[in-house]
Amino acid sequence: MRCLVTGATGYLGGRLVPRLLAEGHQVRCLVRSPEKLRDVPWATDVEIVRGDVLDDLGEAMRDVEVVHYLVHSLHSKDFAGADREAAENTARAAARAGVRRIVYLGGLHPEGVPLSPHLASRKEVGEVFLRSPVPAVVLQAAVIIGSGSASFEMLRYLTERLPVMVTPRWVHNRIQPIAVRDVLRYLVGATSLDANRTFDVGGPDVLTYLEMMLRYARVAGLPKRRVLPVPVLTPGLSSHWVNLVTPVPRSIAKPLIESLVHEVVCRENDIRELLPGENVGYDKAVELALTKSRDADVETRWSGASTPGAPSEPLPTDPDWSGGSVYTDERERRTEATPERLWEVVEGIGGERGWYSFPLAWAIRGWLDRLVGGVGLRRGRRDPHRLHVGEALDFWRVEEVERGRLLRLRAEMKVPGKAWLELRVAEGERGGSTYRQRAVFVPKGLAGHLYWAVVWPFHGVVFGSMVRNIANEAELHKNFRKS
């Protein structure tokens, strides 16, 4: 079938596309930034259309038989209104184009009780599709367990970093988690499912969140965790705690936790009869996710989606583009290492390797960013060796990769302006190679100019040592290989 996948740059969409292709479906991807799909292994096997679910979708829907709707506006202030409008627009466009089916993944929720804003919005979007003239398969899942998912990362870091766990009341609510591979199996199977209804999807285990943490610890080989109940810890306060302890920022943690306030257990299992197959148990799902994470074989991550409020404009080529000041910090260093070896160091930067200068200074900057609601430094990287355009890298976003030559990063930390960091590699005139580094900052208002004035004295230390240490790291391995 001819499928349109919205949200193809996201966690589930990026995994669904290759599985649809493997089943013989033709896939078109609707994305706001096509460049983010440039480096994915299946990029040449799909048609990519630039657009947004709030735009005119006539061209995106042309000749499409099935729409997989995997987008939501979780971070925006009026995310419920934005999601409703986007769903209604998509449903109208699908009806006009003669689409045969819409497949949507919503959230598992109880009936007859007030829902969290996040779950209420997911439910409303499903209802929009079910009321439309186009038949819809609305899958409803609770916590998804898979390498790189926000739910799994939150669970993982809370358990691993807290030998004594402070537990609010909601950790005793029952949840029916599901492995990401089973979610994807259902999404692929729903492509050919003749129905117009909701389907609850879940794994074989029903657990409390506390049991999920304790069983995670056992599967991961961690010492037994101690539990300290704190009933007064509200979902809002819990999200601040998650923001400090895990890589998941408060903007994502809050709706996730608010959803856990409800008991989310499947009320029916009809999907198992229509799409039979053995579902992965919780312990096995955790084991698979941990193996993928440890082997650096994570297909997609929650941080792959753009951070709302972060600048999205490319690096300006004209310094006068804004009609105002553009501050730069440019440095260069020659090294005896080959360009190939120097590039290995450049592309491997960040994550567990760090930034080759004053780890404490980078850590403090990351903590400060978290305190003001930013993404912080703990998002890490998906792969320890290779970077793709559009990926998150700590508190940066990869804007451009010219393999062997250029790595350009766009800042997503909270700053009064827009910032980029360029790392370039060139062949040396007399052998070896040259490393060039450029930081660019476009201030916003007086606060931006004051910010640059405050941090500028530290750049000589931080960026200066960064240039030296990157060159030294490349030469160290060169000399090691020689010996």
From TrEMBL:
It holds the Pfam family DUF2867. Residues 297-334 are annotated as: Disordered. It comes from the Bacteria. Residues 7-109 form the NAD(P)-binding domain. CDD domains: SDR_a2. This is SDR family oxidoreductase. The lineage of its organism: Bacteria, Bacillati, Actinomycetota, Actinomycetes, Pseudonocardiales.
